Amino acid sequence: MKLFGLYLHIPFCVHKCGYCDFNSHPLEGQDTAGYVSALAREIRIRAGSLDSGTTIGSLFFGGGTPTVLEAEQLIHLLDTCRKHYQIAADCEITLEANPGTIQSDFLPKLKDAGFNRISIGVQSFDADELKLLERIHSAEEVDSTVRTARDAGFGNLSMDLMFALPGQSMHTWQSNLARALDLEPDHISCYNLTIEPNTSFYNQHTAGKLVMPEESLQLVLFQYTMAILKERGFNQYEISNFARHGCECRHNRLYWLNSEHLGLGAGASSYLNGVRSRNIKSPAKYAQAITTQNSATDFKEQLNPRESMGESLMLGLRLKEGVNIHSFEQRYDIGLTSMFGDTLTKLLEQKLITLDGGHLALTEQGLYLADSVILEFISFPSTTP
Ligand code: SF4
Q1: Label partner for 15 (CA 20 to 30 A): which of 122, 167, 365, 379?
Q2: pLDDT of residue 199
Protein backbone atom coordinates (compact mmCIF):
# COMPACT_ATOMS: atom_id res chain seq x y z
CA MET A 1 0.00 0.00 0.00
CA LYS A 2 1.39 3.40 -1.04
CA LEU A 3 1.10 5.83 1.91
CA PHE A 4 0.73 9.42 0.91
CA GLY A 5 0.79 12.85 2.57
CA LEU A 6 -1.97 15.43 2.22
CA TYR A 7 -1.40 19.00 3.41
CA LEU A 8 -4.03 21.73 3.82
CA HIS A 9 -2.84 25.32 4.20
CA ILE A 10 -4.76 27.87 6.27
CA PRO A 11 -3.00 31.16 5.46
CA PHE A 12 -4.42 33.42 8.18
CA CYS A 13 -2.94 34.64 11.47
CA VAL A 14 -4.23 37.06 14.06
CA HIS A 15 -0.98 39.01 13.67
CA LYS A 16 2.05 38.54 11.41
CA CYS A 17 5.05 37.73 13.65
CA GLY A 18 8.16 39.80 12.98
CA TYR A 19 10.36 36.85 11.93
CA CYS A 20 7.78 35.00 9.81
CA ASP A 21 8.23 34.41 6.09
CA PHE A 22 5.49 31.78 5.76
CA ASN A 23 2.51 32.39 3.52
CA SER A 24 0.40 33.92 6.29
CA HIS A 25 -1.77 37.03 6.20
CA PRO A 26 -3.39 39.06 8.98
CA LEU A 27 -6.88 37.74 9.61
CA GLU A 28 -8.66 41.06 9.72
CA GLY A 29 -10.77 41.71 6.64
CA GLN A 30 -10.21 38.23 5.13
CA ASP A 31 -13.09 36.23 3.69
CA THR A 32 -12.40 33.05 5.67
CA ALA A 33 -15.73 31.45 4.75
CA GLY A 34 -14.99 31.99 1.04
CA TYR A 35 -11.51 30.54 1.53
CA VAL A 36 -12.82 27.41 3.30
CA SER A 37 -15.35 26.88 0.55
CA ALA A 38 -12.62 27.20 -2.14
CA LEU A 39 -10.34 24.83 -0.23
CA ALA A 40 -13.14 22.24 0.06
CA ARG A 41 -13.63 22.60 -3.68
CA GLU A 42 -9.91 22.05 -4.35
CA ILE A 43 -9.96 18.99 -2.06
CA ARG A 44 -12.69 17.53 -4.27
CA ILE A 45 -11.09 18.47 -7.58
CA ARG A 46 -7.53 17.34 -6.83
CA ALA A 47 -8.64 13.94 -5.52
CA GLY A 48 -8.77 12.90 -9.18
CA SER A 49 -5.01 13.51 -9.59
CA LEU A 50 -4.06 10.62 -7.31
CA ASP A 51 -3.62 7.03 -8.52
CA SER A 52 -6.39 4.74 -7.41
CA GLY A 53 -5.33 2.83 -4.31
CA THR A 54 -3.41 5.82 -2.92
CA THR A 55 -3.99 5.90 0.81
CA ILE A 56 -3.48 9.00 2.93
CA GLY A 57 -1.18 8.13 5.83
CA SER A 58 -0.73 11.69 7.00
CA LEU A 59 -3.10 14.63 6.86
CA PHE A 60 -1.67 17.93 8.08
CA PHE A 61 -3.56 21.18 8.69
CA GLY A 62 -0.83 23.84 8.73
CA GLY A 63 -0.49 27.54 8.33
CA GLY A 64 -0.65 30.31 9.08
CA THR A 65 -2.83 29.47 12.01
CA PRO A 66 -5.47 26.80 11.32
CA THR A 67 -6.97 27.47 14.75
CA VAL A 68 -8.21 30.92 13.70
CA LEU A 69 -10.97 29.06 11.86
CA GLU A 70 -14.14 27.86 13.58
CA ALA A 71 -13.99 24.23 14.76
CA GLU A 72 -16.91 23.51 12.41
CA GLN A 73 -14.94 24.83 9.42
CA LEU A 74 -11.95 22.59 10.22
CA ILE A 75 -14.25 19.61 10.70
CA HIS A 76 -15.95 20.35 7.38
CA LEU A 77 -12.54 20.28 5.65
CA LEU A 78 -11.60 17.02 7.37
CA ASP A 79 -14.93 15.44 6.44
CA THR A 80 -14.46 16.57 2.83
CA CYS A 81 -11.06 14.82 2.77
CA ARG A 82 -12.66 11.68 4.19
CA LYS A 83 -15.34 11.77 1.52
CA HIS A 84 -12.98 12.09 -1.43
CA TYR A 85 -9.79 10.27 -0.39
CA GLN A 86 -8.95 6.90 1.04
CA ILE A 87 -7.72 7.70 4.54
CA ALA A 88 -5.71 5.04 6.41
CA ALA A 89 -7.36 3.81 9.59
CA ASP A 90 -4.31 4.96 11.57
CA CYS A 91 -3.79 8.18 9.59
CA GLU A 92 -1.87 10.85 11.52
CA ILE A 93 -4.14 13.90 11.45
CA THR A 94 -2.25 16.96 12.70
CA LEU A 95 -3.55 20.37 13.62
CA GLU A 96 -1.17 23.31 14.09
CA ALA A 97 -2.40 25.49 16.93
CA ASN A 98 -1.56 28.92 18.28
CA PRO A 99 -2.13 29.14 22.07
CA GLY A 100 -3.59 32.63 21.65
CA THR A 101 -6.55 31.27 19.68
CA ILE A 102 -7.78 28.30 21.71
CA GLN A 103 -11.19 28.44 23.43
CA SER A 104 -12.04 25.73 25.97
CA ASP A 105 -14.62 23.89 23.83
CA PHE A 106 -12.55 24.03 20.62
CA LEU A 107 -10.13 21.12 20.97
CA PRO A 108 -12.64 18.54 22.32
CA LYS A 109 -14.75 19.08 19.18
CA LEU A 110 -11.73 18.56 16.92
CA LYS A 111 -10.53 15.50 18.80
CA ASP A 112 -14.00 13.96 18.51
CA ALA A 113 -13.97 14.68 14.78
CA GLY A 114 -10.75 12.69 14.30
CA PHE A 115 -7.77 15.03 14.73
CA ASN A 116 -5.23 12.97 16.68
CA ARG A 117 -2.07 15.08 16.79
CA ILE A 118 -1.61 18.70 17.84
CA SER A 119 1.43 20.83 17.12
CA ILE A 120 1.52 23.91 19.33
CA GLY A 121 3.49 26.99 18.25
CA VAL A 122 5.13 27.98 21.54
CA GLN A 123 8.48 29.48 20.47
CA SER A 124 9.30 30.72 23.98
CA PHE A 125 8.06 30.84 27.58
CA ASP A 126 9.87 34.09 28.32
CA ALA A 127 7.61 37.17 28.31
CA ASP A 128 10.29 39.44 26.82
CA GLU A 129 11.12 36.96 24.07
CA LEU A 130 7.44 36.45 23.22
CA LYS A 131 7.08 40.21 22.92
CA LEU A 132 10.18 40.50 20.75
CA LEU A 133 8.87 37.75 18.44
CA GLU A 134 5.49 39.52 18.31
CA ARG A 135 3.68 36.39 19.44
CA ILE A 136 0.05 36.95 20.45
CA HIS A 137 0.08 34.60 23.47
CA SER A 138 1.58 34.32 26.94
CA ALA A 139 3.39 31.39 28.57
CA GLU A 140 0.28 30.82 30.71
CA GLU A 141 -1.81 30.37 27.56
CA VAL A 142 0.65 27.69 26.43
CA ASP A 143 0.11 25.88 29.74
CA SER A 144 -3.66 26.07 29.41
CA THR A 145 -3.59 24.95 25.74
CA VAL A 146 -1.53 21.89 26.68
CA ARG A 147 -3.93 21.09 29.54
CA THR A 148 -6.97 21.52 27.27
CA ALA A 149 -5.41 19.36 24.55
CA ARG A 150 -4.55 16.58 26.99
CA ASP A 151 -8.02 16.76 28.59
CA ALA A 152 -9.55 16.53 25.12
CA GLY A 153 -7.59 13.29 24.58
CA PHE A 154 -4.72 14.38 22.30
CA GLY A 155 -2.17 11.64 23.04
CA ASN A 156 0.34 13.00 20.54
CA LEU A 157 1.38 16.55 21.34
CA SER A 158 4.20 18.51 19.80
CA MET A 159 5.70 21.91 20.62
CA ASP A 160 7.68 24.28 18.41
CA LEU A 161 10.42 26.26 20.14
CA MET A 162 12.90 28.75 18.77
CA PHE A 163 16.45 29.41 19.93
CA ALA A 164 19.29 31.81 19.11
CA LEU A 165 16.97 34.78 19.55
CA PRO A 166 18.40 38.28 19.80
CA GLY A 167 19.58 38.80 23.38
CA GLN A 168 19.01 35.18 24.35
CA SER A 169 21.40 33.68 26.89
CA MET A 170 22.11 30.08 27.76
CA HIS A 171 20.14 30.68 30.96
CA THR A 172 16.94 31.82 29.21
CA TRP A 173 17.14 28.98 26.67
CA GLN A 174 17.69 26.44 29.45
CA SER A 175 14.62 27.69 31.29
CA ASN A 176 12.56 27.61 28.07
CA LEU A 177 13.47 23.97 27.53
CA ALA A 178 12.83 23.14 31.19
CA ARG A 179 9.34 24.71 31.02
CA ALA A 180 8.60 22.78 27.83
CA LEU A 181 9.76 19.49 29.34
CA ASP A 182 7.63 20.09 32.45
CA LEU A 183 4.60 19.97 30.15
CA GLU A 184 5.64 16.49 28.94
CA PRO A 185 5.26 16.83 25.16
CA ASP A 186 5.71 13.79 22.92
CA HIS A 187 7.59 15.72 20.26
CA ILE A 188 9.64 18.92 20.27
CA SER A 189 10.87 20.93 17.29
CA CYS A 190 13.69 23.37 18.09
CA TYR A 191 14.45 25.80 15.30
CA ASN A 192 17.39 28.13 15.13
CA LEU A 193 16.00 31.59 14.34
CA THR A 194 17.12 32.78 10.94
CA ILE A 195 16.55 36.24 9.52
CA GLU A 196 14.56 35.90 6.30
CA PRO A 197 14.18 38.57 3.61
CA ASN A 198 10.81 40.34 3.42
CA THR A 199 10.25 40.18 7.17
CA SER A 200 10.15 42.97 9.71
CA PHE A 201 13.11 41.28 11.48
CA TYR A 202 15.11 41.58 8.26
CA ASN A 203 14.56 45.33 8.12
CA GLN A 204 15.39 45.74 11.81
CA HIS A 205 18.50 43.57 11.42
CA THR A 206 19.67 45.50 8.37
CA ALA A 207 19.19 48.75 10.31
CA GLY A 208 21.34 47.36 13.13
CA LYS A 209 18.43 47.26 15.60
CA LEU A 210 18.39 43.50 16.01
CA VAL A 211 21.61 41.85 17.09
CA MET A 212 21.80 38.10 16.65
CA PRO A 213 23.82 35.89 19.02
CA GLU A 214 27.37 34.98 17.99
CA GLU A 215 27.63 31.75 16.01
CA SER A 216 29.65 30.19 18.84
CA LEU A 217 26.73 30.79 21.25
CA GLN A 218 24.25 29.41 18.72
CA LEU A 219 26.31 26.23 18.51
CA VAL A 220 26.48 25.88 22.30
CA LEU A 221 22.69 26.36 22.57
CA PHE A 222 22.17 23.66 19.93
CA GLN A 223 24.58 21.27 21.63
CA TYR A 224 22.83 21.80 24.95
CA THR A 225 19.45 21.14 23.28
CA MET A 226 20.64 17.83 21.84
CA ALA A 227 22.19 16.73 25.13
CA ILE A 228 19.26 17.59 27.42
CA LEU A 229 16.60 16.17 25.12
CA LYS A 230 18.57 12.95 24.71
CA GLU A 231 18.91 12.71 28.49
CA ARG A 232 15.13 13.17 28.80
CA GLY A 233 14.38 10.30 26.41
CA PHE A 234 13.88 12.10 23.10
CA ASN A 235 15.29 10.73 19.87
CA GLN A 236 16.72 13.40 17.58
CA TYR A 237 15.37 11.91 14.36
CA GLU A 238 16.01 15.05 12.31
CA ILE A 239 18.32 18.01 12.81
CA SER A 240 15.68 20.15 14.53
CA ASN A 241 13.17 17.48 15.59
CA PHE A 242 13.06 15.32 18.70
CA ALA A 243 10.47 12.66 19.52
CA ARG A 244 9.59 10.11 22.12
CA HIS A 245 9.58 6.56 20.76
CA GLY A 246 6.91 6.18 18.07
CA CYS A 247 6.00 9.88 18.02
CA GLU A 248 8.12 10.98 15.06
CA CYS A 249 6.01 13.23 12.83
CA ARG A 250 4.82 11.18 9.86
CA HIS A 251 4.11 14.27 7.77
CA ASN A 252 7.65 15.57 8.22
CA ARG A 253 9.20 12.17 7.56
CA LEU A 254 7.36 11.87 4.24
CA TYR A 255 8.69 15.30 3.33
CA TRP A 256 12.29 14.50 4.25
CA LEU A 257 12.09 11.22 2.35
CA ASN A 258 11.21 13.35 -0.69
CA SER A 259 7.96 11.40 -1.06
CA GLU A 260 5.11 12.49 -3.22
CA HIS A 261 2.55 14.70 -1.52
CA LEU A 262 -0.39 16.88 -2.34
CA GLY A 263 -0.56 20.39 -0.89
CA LEU A 264 -3.87 22.23 -1.10
CA GLY A 265 -4.70 25.84 -0.31
CA ALA A 266 -3.05 29.19 -0.99
CA GLY A 267 0.67 28.86 -1.68
CA ALA A 268 0.70 25.12 -0.97
CA SER A 269 3.23 22.96 -2.85
CA SER A 270 2.78 19.50 -4.30
CA TYR A 271 5.16 16.86 -5.65
CA LEU A 272 3.41 14.38 -7.89
CA ASN A 273 4.71 12.18 -10.71
CA GLY A 274 8.05 14.01 -10.75
CA VAL A 275 6.38 17.42 -11.04
CA ARG A 276 6.63 20.13 -8.42
CA SER A 277 3.83 22.67 -8.40
CA ARG A 278 2.64 25.50 -6.22
CA ASN A 279 -0.62 27.37 -5.82
CA ILE A 280 -1.17 31.14 -5.95
CA LYS A 281 -0.11 32.66 -2.62
CA SER A 282 -2.78 35.32 -2.13
CA PRO A 283 -5.78 33.77 -0.33
CA ALA A 284 -8.32 35.92 -2.21
CA LYS A 285 -6.76 35.25 -5.64
CA TYR A 286 -6.45 31.56 -4.80
CA ALA A 287 -10.15 31.34 -3.88
CA GLN A 288 -11.14 33.17 -7.03
CA ALA A 289 -9.00 30.96 -9.27
CA ILE A 290 -10.32 27.74 -7.75
CA THR A 291 -13.89 28.95 -8.01
CA THR A 292 -13.69 30.22 -11.58
CA GLN A 293 -11.00 28.01 -13.18
CA ASN A 294 -10.92 24.91 -10.96
CA SER A 295 -7.15 25.38 -10.57
CA ALA A 296 -4.92 27.80 -8.68
CA THR A 297 -1.55 26.44 -9.82
CA ASP A 298 0.83 29.28 -10.70
CA PHE A 299 4.12 27.38 -10.83
CA LYS A 300 5.05 23.99 -12.22
CA GLU A 301 8.35 22.29 -12.97
CA GLN A 302 9.33 18.80 -14.01
CA LEU A 303 12.40 17.79 -12.06
CA ASN A 304 15.07 16.00 -14.05
CA PRO A 305 16.64 12.94 -12.38
CA ARG A 306 19.72 14.88 -11.25
CA GLU A 307 17.62 17.57 -9.57
CA SER A 308 15.44 14.96 -7.93
CA MET A 309 18.51 13.07 -6.67
CA GLY A 310 19.94 16.30 -5.26
CA GLU A 311 16.68 16.99 -3.45
CA SER A 312 16.47 13.46 -2.05
CA LEU A 313 19.97 13.85 -0.61
CA MET A 314 19.34 17.39 0.62
CA LEU A 315 16.22 16.32 2.49
CA GLY A 316 17.29 12.82 3.51
CA LEU A 317 20.57 13.96 5.05
CA ARG A 318 18.55 16.02 7.53
CA LEU A 319 17.30 12.75 9.00
CA LYS A 320 19.51 11.19 11.64
CA GLU A 321 19.20 7.78 9.95
CA GLY A 322 20.32 9.48 6.74
CA VAL A 323 19.62 8.27 3.22
CA ASN A 324 18.86 4.61 2.62
CA ILE A 325 21.36 3.80 -0.15
CA HIS A 326 19.45 0.79 -1.50
CA SER A 327 16.19 2.76 -1.79
CA PHE A 328 18.01 5.67 -3.38
CA GLU A 329 19.72 3.45 -5.97
CA GLN A 330 16.45 1.67 -6.77
CA ARG A 331 14.54 4.91 -7.12
CA TYR A 332 17.06 6.49 -9.50
CA ASP A 333 18.48 3.32 -11.06
CA ILE A 334 22.03 4.50 -10.49
CA GLY A 335 24.87 3.74 -8.05
CA LEU A 336 25.35 6.40 -5.38
CA THR A 337 29.13 6.16 -5.64
CA SER A 338 29.13 6.37 -9.42
CA MET A 339 27.12 9.59 -9.17
CA PHE A 340 28.72 11.25 -6.15
CA GLY A 341 32.04 9.40 -5.78
CA ASP A 342 34.34 12.43 -5.46
CA THR A 343 32.01 14.25 -3.08
CA LEU A 344 31.60 11.15 -0.90
CA THR A 345 35.37 10.57 -0.73
CA LYS A 346 36.01 14.18 0.26
CA LEU A 347 33.32 14.28 2.96
CA LEU A 348 34.34 10.88 4.34
CA GLU A 349 37.95 12.11 4.65
CA GLN A 350 36.69 15.21 6.46
CA LYS A 351 34.66 12.92 8.78
CA LEU A 352 31.46 14.82 7.99
CA ILE A 353 29.51 11.78 6.72
CA THR A 354 29.35 8.04 7.36
CA LEU A 355 28.42 5.20 5.01
CA ASP A 356 27.44 2.53 7.52
CA GLY A 357 24.66 -0.05 7.60
CA GLY A 358 23.45 0.82 4.12
CA HIS A 359 22.88 4.48 5.00
CA LEU A 360 24.59 7.72 4.05
CA ALA A 361 24.33 9.96 7.11
CA LEU A 362 25.88 13.02 8.71
CA THR A 363 28.36 12.56 11.57
CA GLU A 364 27.88 14.73 14.67
CA GLN A 365 30.39 17.18 13.21
CA GLY A 366 28.51 17.04 9.90
CA LEU A 367 25.30 17.87 11.75
CA TYR A 368 26.74 21.20 12.92
CA LEU A 369 27.79 21.98 9.35
CA ALA A 370 24.70 20.42 7.77
CA ASP A 371 23.92 23.25 5.37
CA SER A 372 27.37 23.34 3.81
CA VAL A 373 27.66 19.52 3.66
CA ILE A 374 24.29 19.25 1.94
CA LEU A 375 25.32 21.99 -0.49
CA GLU A 376 28.17 19.75 -1.66
CA PHE A 377 25.58 17.30 -3.01
CA ILE A 378 23.35 19.87 -4.63
CA SER A 379 26.10 21.77 -6.41
CA PHE A 380 27.96 18.55 -7.14
CA PRO A 381 30.11 17.99 -10.12
CA SER A 382 29.15 14.32 -10.47
CA THR A 383 31.72 11.59 -11.06
CA THR A 384 29.87 10.58 -14.23
CA PRO A 385 28.89 13.26 -16.72
S1 SF4 B 1 1.75 32.51 14.03
FE2 SF4 B 1 3.20 31.30 12.80
S3 SF4 B 1 2.51 31.45 10.68
FE4 SF4 B 1 1.47 33.06 11.87
S5 SF4 B 1 2.73 34.87 11.58
FE6 SF4 B 1 3.40 33.90 13.47
S7 SF4 B 1 5.07 32.52 12.83
FE8 SF4 B 1 3.96 33.12 10.97
Answers
A1: 167
A2: 96
